Amino acid sequence: MIRSELVQKIASENSDLRIDEVERIVDTFFDSIVDQLAAGGRVELRGFGAFSTRSRESRTGRNPRTGASVDVKAKNVPYFKPGKEMRERLND
């Protein structure tokens, strides 16, 4: 499912909301998660899962096309850990 399909699904299940209102809600939801992660925080949605960040150390990588060594800087990457309810639904 892509973002536009999510917006359409929410709009179809909530006929009292206009498409532009649903888009604003979805944007606000995702922006809030990203803002919290960028501030070094964690977002937990009970039953769904938890979003957090993990640090990756700098390392020497390899360009797959040329085979040349490339320095990769340290960075923070998003991480998602599914909740218990999600794991159970996926494995039933």
Would you give an account of this structure?
Helix content is 42%, strand content 29%. With 92 residues, the chain is α+β, with helices and mostly antiparallel strands. The chain has a 3-stranded antiparallel beta sheet. β1 (43-45) and β2 (49-56) form a beta hairpin. The two termini are 21 Å apart.
Structural class, by secondary structure, is alpha+beta
Largest beta-sheet characterization: 3 strands, antiparallel
| Strand order of the biggest β-sheet | 1-2-5
Count the helices. How many? Answer: 3
Report mean pLDDT, rounded to a whole number: 95
Radius of gyration: 19 Å
Uncertain segments are none
Q: What proportion strand?
A: 25-35%
Helix/strand order, N-terminal first: HHEEEEEH
Principal-axis shape: elongated
**Distance N to C terminus:** 21 Å
Helix content: 40-55%
Number of DSSP-assigned strands: 5
